[in-house]
Amino acid sequence: MSIDITFQWEGRTIRLSYHPRYLKMIDHLEIRSGDGDPLPITETGYKSHFFGPVEPVMSNDEVIEMIVRWLDKEAASPSWQTYLLQSKQLSLF
Description:
alpha+beta
């Protein structure tokens, strides 16, 4: 069973695929930015994350809540703040 979710975070589209009991052992998330741009948790716009297993299987809302907390935490980092500042400025090089 796989759950596919799309939601908005800070004006960015986030696509998630949640695979509870991946290979009957562990939970797996695939996180993608909708436009392929970096996210606070991944410089490439894609993140594969194994965890759990969580009992009972998480609902869509619980998965979104977990990812939003993770994104919010990492978005406060100096490296993400620097990236945001630089991405708003034009560069000749």
